[in-house]
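Final report, Chapter 2: Outcomes

The project's central promise was a pipeline that accepts a single protein chain and returns its three-dimensional structure in a standardized token representation, suitable for archiving and comparison. That pipeline is now operational. To close this chapter, we reproduce one record exactly as it appears in the project archive, with the input sequence first and the structure output second.
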Amino acid sequence: MLERIKRGEVQAHQFPQGFALTEIRQFSTERVCFVTWLYGKNFDEWKAPLVESNVTLAKSQGCAAIEAACRFGLERSLRDLGFRRSQIIIRKEIT
């Protein structure tokens, strides 16, 4: 994973109480910033800055959305920031 981060294939987002890894995925119809790993404590305290940094990254890369595979608790926690369930993947459109 460290090599993929060094090559820019995976982006690391560090916060005081956690971190996330993302990657830009190109599909036939769109690009998506996909959250591949999320870890930390007191998530409610840093979820908004995390989403803000992911939106900034996604916009700079021409992405249509941010997506993440997650457990149901994360979906509920991020609902107030615009995420919704899409199958077992949550998704936030980039506007």
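Archive annotation: Residues 9 and 91 are 20 Å apart (CA to CA).
This record, like all others produced under the grant, will remain available to the consortium after the project formally closes.
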